[in-house]
């Protein structure tokens, strides 16, 4: 892993991964929700967030049938 973050020392595989990682340190949020304006460092985080507005709930509890927009919510429900 030749690319090292100067801020925390984490090593990454590519320069693009390093750039994405460094946004966490700078607080830069280039991806913004068009519905509420909330900013995100990663496009994938924005995609996940958009499920809230779209009312998508792809994660289903097989025990009770309740659905969740995020897998972490389902995991918390199942504990």
TrEMBL record:
InterPro entries: Znf_C2H2_sf (IPR036236), Znf_C2H2_type (IPR013087). PROSITE patterns: ZINC_FINGER_C2H2_1 (PS00028), ZINC_FINGER_C2H2_2 (PS50157). Keywords: DNA-binding, Metal-binding, Nucleus, Repeat, Transcription, Transcription regulation, Zinc, Zinc-finger. It comes from the Eukaryota. SUPFAM superfamilies: beta-beta-alpha zinc fingers. Its main location: nucleus. It is found in: Nucleus. GO terms for cellular component: nucleus. GO terms for molecular function: DNA-binding transcription factor activity, RNA polymerase II-specific; RNA polymerase II cis-regulatory region sequence-specific DNA binding; zinc ion binding. Pfam families: zf-C2H2 (PF00096). Gene3D superfamilies: Classic Zinc Finger. Residues 3-30, 31-58, 59-79 form the C2H2-type domain. Belongs to the krueppel C2H2-type zinc-finger protein family. This is ZN397 protein. It comes from Pitta sordida. The gene is Znf397_2.
